[in-house]
Structure formats: C-alpha cells, structure tokens
Amino acid sequence: xxxxxxxVGVTAVLLALGAAGLRPLRSWPLALRGxxxxxxxxxxxxxFVGMREELIAMVPPALPAPALLVTVTGVLELAGAxxxxxxxxxPWAAAGLSALLVVMFPANVHAITAGTVSGMTxxxxxxxxxxxxxxxxxxxxxxHHLRERRRPAPDSPERAxxxxxxx
Length: 167
What we know:
Blueprint: H1 2-19, H2 28-45, H3 52-58, H4 66-85, H5 90-114, H6 124-150, H7 157-161
Helix pairs in contact: 1-2, 2-4, 2-6, 3-4, 4-5, 5-6
C-alpha cells in the first residue's frame, strides 16, 4: 500500500504546488512523473534495505537466482525513477517501468497465492488494482509524450496553415 500512497501523495502535493503558483509544476505530466519517481525510489530501495529477504521469497521457484533477480529489478526501478524525472529520458523510463510492472506482476501473484511473504496483507484483487494504477500512471506519461511529439510546434508552418490538426 505504501507505493500507492507515495504515488498519489507526491503527485497531489506537486499538483497543489503548481496550483499555488509554482509555475513549472502546473503540468500534470510533470507532477505525475514526480509521483512515479517517488514510488519507484521507495520500491527500489526496499530491494536492498528492509525487505530484501521478503522480496527474494516472492520470486517464483521456477526462476533462477532469486537474489540476483531482486538486485537487478531494484537497480532498474531506481534507474527508472531517476530517468522519469528528466524530460529527455522520461518516455524511455516510462516505457521501461511499464514493462517492468508487467514482468514483475507474476511474482506478486505468486507471493499472495503461495503465502510466501508473511507481511503481505493485500488480496489478489487489491494488488491487481494497485498494479493497474501503477501501470496507468507510467503509460499516461508515455502516451502524453507521444502525443506531444506528434503535435506541431506553436510557431511551425504546419500549425499556422492548419495542417496536421484533427477535424
């Protein structure tokens, strides 16, 4: 539940700061990127501190080298958290984090259904819903970037002539 709180809480605080007059934070994608960065920083850090053994226990038995997998996914989460904050790398980070969420979901299902983590109190439907929210957030950043890339610049000849606009 803590990752969801981090995502929603940080995004809301950044949006509030934007509404209060902090001009760079008026953009919802920027606020959402901040929330995603906070969430993945939190989840990435626990791959190394605090919950490492529980996360290793979550890895389905069919996968090799659970400790290595937890280390790699932790590094990827931290790299994604950093990458999503920089505008140039945010679409790549959003795509990578989206893929990571999909690939790691079976470990969450395994942990809940097999009861391998004693502290995991979420039900499978709740965990699935949270995962859908996380995925929606990362995909929203990616889709926003792709739409912005397709939109002509305000001072471009395409924009002035009306070319490229939907009817």
